[in-house]
Each structure stands twice: as structure tokens, then as C-alpha cells.
Amino acid sequence: MSTFEFSFNNDNVKSVKKRIGLLTSGGDSSGMNAAVRSIVRVAISQGCEAYAIYEGYEGLVQGGNMIKKFEWSDVRGYLSIGGTLIRTVRCQSFREHKGRQQAAYNLIKNGIDALIVCGGDGTLTGADTLRSEWPGLLKELVQTGKLTEEEVTPHTYLTIVGIVCSIDNDMALTDITIGAVTSLHRICEAVDCISSTAFSHSRAFVIEVMGRHCGWLALMAAISSGADYVFIPERPPEAGKWKEEMLDAIEQQREAGKRNTIIIVAEGAIDDNLEHIKADDIRKLLVEAKIDTRVTTLGHIQRGGRPCAYDRNLATLQGVEAVEAVLRATPDTPSPMISVRENKFVCEPLMKAVKLTHQVAEAIAEKNFRRAMELRDPEFSAGYEAYLSTTFMKNKAPSQANHSLKIGIIHIGAPAGGMNAATRAAVRVAINHGHKPIAIYNGFSGLLNENVRELSWLDVDDWASKGGSELGTTKTEADSLELIACQLQKQGINALLLIGGFEAYSSLIKLSKARDKYPAFCIPMVCIPATISNNVPGTEFSLGSDTSLNAIVDGCDVIKQSASASRRRVFVVEVHGGNCGYLAVMAGLAVGATNIYAPEYGLSLKILQEDVNHLVRRFGADKKRTSSGRLILRNESVSSTYTTDVIANIMQTEGQGLYDSRTSILGHIQQGGSPSPMDRIRAKTFAVKCVHFLEKHAHFSDPSEKTKLPEVYTKDPESVAVIGIIGAKIVCTPVSELELETEFDKRKSKKAWWLNVKPLVELLSKWGYSDNEPIEKF
User: Fold this and answer.
1) Which residues does the UniProt record annotate as the domain Phosphofructokinase (predicted)?
2) Given CA atoms 107, 108, 111, 112 in this order, what sign does their dihedral have?
């Protein structure tokens, strides 16, 4: 998710621009309700009316009370609920011309000529079919006397906008679909639990996940959990060989001392002869090899449950874009699908996306597996290669051009989810490339105390799912430069990978600036940003920020439940972030906060008074016994005057007895336990590319030349960098360039793509409540 533009008018709009219908259809996915909430509230704020169509196309055909006008309060509480509250069913009648004619009739009778449809490729195809037939359907309805010319004249064309909701992430022309990441959360939670019992009994588990024609869930689950083998439709193994290859790989792992084996198989897995690979067939093979094996089919547990933070925000932002697309539409505009391309929201031709999606299955059926991979998002192939390089030991000797490096790996700063996953990936890629990964324990103080050792393949085997820092980390920066240089030289470390937050970034700058004085620092060095605050320059997302965001959302869901049970209560929730408001803003969007107090926006008595006035109006307008709790998120560093307690006391004192207030300081639970799948995937991607970066910039001196320089020597500014996500790309940016965009006194980047999100948070929580609403005393 990246920057987006959004404008709205806080004044009540009297004229109705459009009546917009919305429906959810096909398989449900977590995040659908967040999209519904966003569409309804943004539509109302833009002067439109929103109509929920219950049970998808079935409700469109039946009409009557299946089509209901939604008010602002009708979507209260939708954010944290999985599935779809406006329901979905498979509708056979809509597939027939008569059913679509009846659907058109019901839309005209309700004055609706714009539809936002949430679902998969079948849902979107049905909507576009209705649009293409619309003029003919209206003509038929007039000819049969069911509608008059006066009724149909204002609605001569039908606007369709599609939002893709699919746990399989199988739609072309978009990098991610609503529900896929939440489903991945469910899978990883299950695999993490299964791994512990597999280890206890030295068993193998074959875990089947969803994905008939798309292996995204299976592949990303394998990457996230550190699975030992994966079967996906797009990269089928060779028929007649895969059984032997799998058994050899697992036997090699067992001989090396590994006790447990996890194999993930997509339900649509095949070999290159298109023969179905079944989970039970894999189990039988392992049992024949004398490995105690069980099969677990996760089934529909992958669909349900509360949406994760990512899916809530993705669905909310796509809902905004969908309403904007409706208002921009013309009769000549092809039906758009709201897509995420290169971390930006764009409109892609809906039917083009559907056609390309179908081409994947066609390519697989034609055994054109290379084409099938090309049709997936760009990260899919890269993810598969990264998985291979961190799962199967090659015992590869370094090439003459590559040489062998001793790569020091050190954690600096506070713990963050993904640190261990990044270390695991870096260690394994380094070993496969013939290098020696050297663990530096307890930060730079550990280096000075010579607390270092070489890590083996199995040392890091179970680190993918571990939170915190297995190496140990401190917030001490690189200060004793002479001693650090001495130890790097003594240990023979000629490449350095720093994993951490702003302290790691600052240390990297200090080491690079000391190169003229200490040749030991004339080695390639790279930093993987790992901090829940997401404040390191050079990346839009740091490791740990997604894990922390989910921890905050989980905590706020519980707090909001408590506040709602008490009916009239406001919680002021304090979150981490230092001088960076990323966590407060994005968590506020995900939990439906009334407001967010963050350093980038400032906090004054005027702002507090405006929020008190809003809360008084809002609680006063609620009917008795129907109020729900409200949350205000406060960044820990927003103000030394208006502390969390002070704000809560102001809210309660000025509340006119309509509500009370409480505080909640989430504290270190925000560092999270097990890292989120998103952080695990990013960790592996970062680490693989970092090893390649160190290799690229490791300029070995010619041994034939007499020189006092160390074996690896480089002063190239490009050889000291921070890796990060910029748009859709993973890039390594030299620290010499990043210094210009750094606010060192505030320990953060000058760039913040998420700044424009706060107005939307306020819109979605405040807009529908008028200053003129009567206050009901109780």
C-alpha cells in the first residue's frame, strides 16, 4: 500500500449524486466487511446513497427487502468481523437471461445504476455481462410493460466497478487480493502449531492448503513457515522423478539431524504430466520410507476469522478507490477493477484481468508452466527461487569470481518480528554460496567481547517463526570504532549484515565515515531495517512493523469490545513509534479509531476540544443501550503536555456525563510474538538480496600483488547501503544518499507515504455525525 490522494467535504451534502449498489458474491474472504464499510461511508460523504444487496446476485434477482439502503451507522463494527455480513450465495438464476432481466428491473426500481461488486473472477464476469446487456434489458422491460420510458431514461447505462476478494490471490493484473493475507495468517498459525508436535514425535506432516489453480498460498506459507517441501500447480515436479527427489531431500535433512518434516501441498498440485499429487499419496511414500507421517487438511479454517491489519486497510483503501471510480465513470469507460500494482491503486480493465486469470489455468493445461509463472505477480517467481535457495543445501563451493566471504551478522536496536527469519535466510543463502555466516551475539558489545561463532544450516532451522532476537540485541550504536575495527579484523569478517532499527542505520553511517581511518571498515556493509516504528530511511516498510500493527489491532479489538460492553466509554490507547506516527495512523485505520494523535500532525487544546465536541454529539445521538465503545490512538511521543492520562481526564471531564474514559498503554506487547507472515516473507526477500549485494561489492585484492590492504577492500560509497521497499521494488540505497532525507534529531525519515491516511481515518469515523444532531440524555 502506498500514497493515495483523497479529498472530501466535511459539510453535509444535500444533493444526491448517485445511488450505488454493493454486493459480495462467490467465496467469502476476510476483509469484505471492511470494504463494505468503506464504500458505504465514503459514498455517503460524497453525497451518494449506498444500497447493500444481500446474498450477492441472488438478492439482486429477488429484490424486495434483499436490497436495503444503508445509513452511516449500519456498518458500525464491520471492520473486525470476518466473512461478509451482507452474505453471499451461489446464484444459478443470474446465469440465465431471465434472471439478469429481473436484476435490471430491481435496480431500476431502486434507482440504482452503479454497482460495486466484491468477489472473484466469476463475480466480476457476471457483473460485466449485466453491464453489456443493460441497454437491451431495459428495452425488453419497457416493451413488456414492466417499466416505463420515464423510469429507465435516467439510467441509460450501468456503471460497474470490481473489487477482487479472493483468498487464493489468483487474479491477474493485481499484486494482492483482499483476504489472501488473512488466509496466510491462518495457515501459518496452524503450521507453527503442527511443527511443535512434529518435532516432539519426530514426525512428518503433509499439510494441504487451498489453491486449485494458484499456488500463492502454498508457496507463501512454505516461505513463512520454513517448510521442507512444497507442491504448487505453476511449478510442477517432473513425473517419475519427484518421488525419489523428495525422499532424497528429506532423507538428507534427517541424516543431518532434523527431527520434523513439513510438506505443504496446494489442493491443485500436479506433476508435469498433469497428474494430481494428493496429500495422502505423499504420506504413503513417507510411511514406506519409515517416516511416521500424518496428513492435515486445513480446509475452510483458511477462509474465516477476523481480518488481519493488512486486509482491513487494503479493503478500506480499495473501497475509497471504488467509489471514486464510480463517480469518474462514463458510458465509454470499460468496467474497471481496483488493482494494486507496484504498491499503488490503479484501475485495470476488469475483463482483461479476468481473461488473463483464465489464461493461467489454460497454460497449465497446455503444460506451458513458464507462461503460467509469468502470468503471476512479479514477486511469485522471485519468492519461489528464494524458497529454493533457503531450503535445500547445495554444498556449493564459491566460484573464482565470487570467492568466499566471512559475513558477520549482527542485530542492533530493539527486537522486531522478522529479525530471526532474516538471519535464517541470510545464513542459508551464504552457506549455499560457499560463504561462512558469523553470528555476532548481543550487538557491538558482543563483538568487543568476542562473542561470535559460525552458524550452521541446522542452527537456524526453526528461526523463521521465532519472534524477538536469537542473537540478542542492544540499542548501543557503534561507538568504540577502533575496538570494533580491531575485532572485525581479528575475526576475519570481510562483509557485514546489520539487522535492526535506527540504531543500526546510524551505526552503518558511522562505520562508513570511518573508512579513511580504519581499513577494516572498507568492506561491503548493508542494513536490513527491522523496527516496529518503521522509521528507517530507505524503505517504506521495515521488518517488524506489520507484526506490531497486528499486535496493536488485536489489542484494540479486545479493548473496543470492552468499551462497547460498557456502552458509553472512550479508551485512549497509547502506542509505540517514537517520533514516527506510522503505527498510530495505520492501526487507527484498521480499528476504526475516532482520531489519531501523532507527532507529524501535532496536538493542541483546540484539537482535543473538537474531539470532545464530536464525542458528545455522537454519544448523545446514539439511542439508549445501542452505543458502542470508541477508541482514540495516541503516539507515545506526540506531546509531553497532553499525556495519555491527561487526555483521558479531559475527555471525561468535558463529556457532560454522556460517557466515561479509560486509558490503555499497550507497551511491549507491540513487539509481537511470532512474526507475521508478511514480515517473514519480507525478511527472506531482504536477506537473499543482501547476500547478493555483499557478493557484488566484495572487491578482492589481487593476491599476486604485494599490498598491505585486507583481502576484501572497497571504499565505494555504493558498497554501504540500506535495503528497502520503494514502490514495488526492492532496492539498496547508499547511506550517503539517505543522509539527506533523514531527520537525525527525530530519528526518522523525512519521507512518509502514509501521511495522507489520517484524513480518511477521521472521515470514516466522524463525517456522518452532524453538529445539529439532538443529544439524548440518559
Assistant:
1) 19-326, 406-694
2) positive
Phi first, then psi: give them for residue 426, nearest 5 degrees: -65, -40
Answer yes or no: 168 catalytic: yes
Average pLDDT over residues 52-77: 96
> Which of 28, 113, 128, 168 is the catalytic position?
168
Binding residues for ATP: 27, 90-91, 120-123
Which positions make up the binding site? 27, 90-91, 120-123, 166-168, 203, 210-212, 267, 294, 300-303, 475, 531-535, 569, 636, 662, 668-671, 747
Rounded-to-integer distance, Cα 482 and Cα 498, Å: 18
**Parallel, antiparallel, or unpaired for β 742-743 and 595-597?**
unpaired
The DSSP line for 273-326 is: T--B--HHHHHHHHHHTT--EEEEE-GGGGT-SPPPHHHHHHHHHHHHHHHHHH
pLDDT in tens, 116-165: 999 999 999 999 999 999 999 999 999 999 999 999 999 999 999 999 99
CA 418/CA 534 separation, integer angstroms: 13
Q: Which of 6, 4, 140, 20 is nearest to 759 (CA)?
A: 6
Query: Residue 752: phi, psi to the nearest 5?
Result: -150, 100
Containing 52, the helix (H) or strand (E) segment is: strand 49-53
225-270 tens-digit pLDDT: 999 999 999 999 999 999 999 999 999 999 999 999 999 999 999 9
Residue 158 CA to residue 58 CA, distance in Å, equals 18
How far is residue 463's CA from residue 409's CA, in Å, rounded to a whole number? 14
Q: Which of 450-464, 505-519, 699-713 has the lowest mean pLDDT?
A: 699-713
Q: What is the mean pLDDT of residues 3-15?
A: 42
Contact by Cβ (8 Å): 717, 736: yes
The pTM of this model reads 0.95
Cα–Cα distance for residue pair 53/106, rounded to 1 Å: 11
To the nearest 10°, report the CA torsion of 220, 464, 524, 487.
180
Q: Is the pLDDT of residue 8 over 60?
A: no
